[in-house]
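Quick log. Single chain, no ligands specified.
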Amino acid sequence: MTQHVDLERSDGPGSAVTTAEHRPVDLRQVADVGGHIAAAISQVVLGKSEVIRLAIVAMLSEGHLLIEDVPGTGKTVLAKALAKTVDSTVSRVQFTPDLMPSDVTGVSVYDRQTSRFEFRAGPIFANIVVADEINRASPKTQSALLECMEERQVTVDGTSYHLARPFLVLATQNPVEMEGTYPLPEAQRDRFLARLSIGYPDRNAEIGMLADRDRTNPLDLLRPVTDAVTVSGLIAAVQTVHLAPPLRQYIVEIVGTTRGVPEVRLGASPRAVLHLARAAKAAAALDDRAFVVPDDVQRLALPVLAHRLLLTVEAHAAHRSAEEIVSVVLSRIRVPRGG
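-> predicted structure:
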């Protein structure tokens, strides 16, 4: 029989924390706090306003974010910058081929003095977990995150330990064709609310990087602009955003259509419907709106859906991409009016 345990809060890195209560937050505060977070991150990640916005959308949706790009483009910097803007418990896990599941979740250790097993929490017990280069670990270790990301709990030796709220995994990964990487399991990719690519900075941003980063690290100067309790309140406020019935049907039709495209072997799951709706609500709140519009859904369809699609061999041979297929699906579906 599985037991459920709540761990007491402690202040060490990677320590266990209790579920954070949220203080009531007015919906109008979402755009204000979101703007402060974006302004802080933009001091570190130059010229990537849309990328920063999507990262904040993921946080306000209480969803996990997968940042994929080639080495050196600032994946880890973005994840650490977002973590530092929130005064909360933060842990960082460097994924390597020899990392074991217990290195992430924790392990039960026998205490001779008490003649009992004592659970020592792993780094997953934090509000924000930065999983660096997640696809360099073995599939066994990657799978250890499945329960954490979906159910927000960890089960070790038959005992379940609840994770902190809010709980957000910011994972970085290199493209699968890079040396020393393992592809993420389909079940794990589906648990990420969105995937984004940072891309190379423009010329002016790179020149700006040379102006001061040879002397100082801007991450060291970053200070929190909010805290975990406030973020929990923002998440609760975002859930009150109105999603009209025609837009619900629109989201379901978009996701359902991906399952019938000939080039797609595995379409988006029902979880994708929930993630797209939650992300659209967060985007609306960031724009200081109490209701979702079709543009919110369309802007988020690619980052929320593309990483979930498995293409056929023929599609790969024809150099089709999941992003291209999602774009085609969007162009074929009638956009609802009014509602």
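The longest helix spans residues 270-286.
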